[in-house]
């Protein structure tokens, strides 16, 4: 059982890109699974 939700999110491991394996520099609970370099969506 989770005692403190803040501790739960602080203890999540850093996310890694599923394509190249580099660590993603953003919140761990986000939905992205690829880093900015490997993402197919480009800024206009």
TrEMBL record:
InterPro entries: YhfH-like. Pfam families: YhfH (PF14149). This is YhfH family protein. It comes from Bacillus aerolatus.
């Amino acid at each position: 059982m989770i005692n403190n939700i803040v501790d739960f999110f602080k203890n999540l491991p850093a996310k890694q890109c599923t394509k190249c394996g580099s660590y993603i520099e953003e919140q761990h609970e986000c939905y992205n699974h690829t880093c900015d370099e490997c993402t197919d969506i480009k800024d206009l």
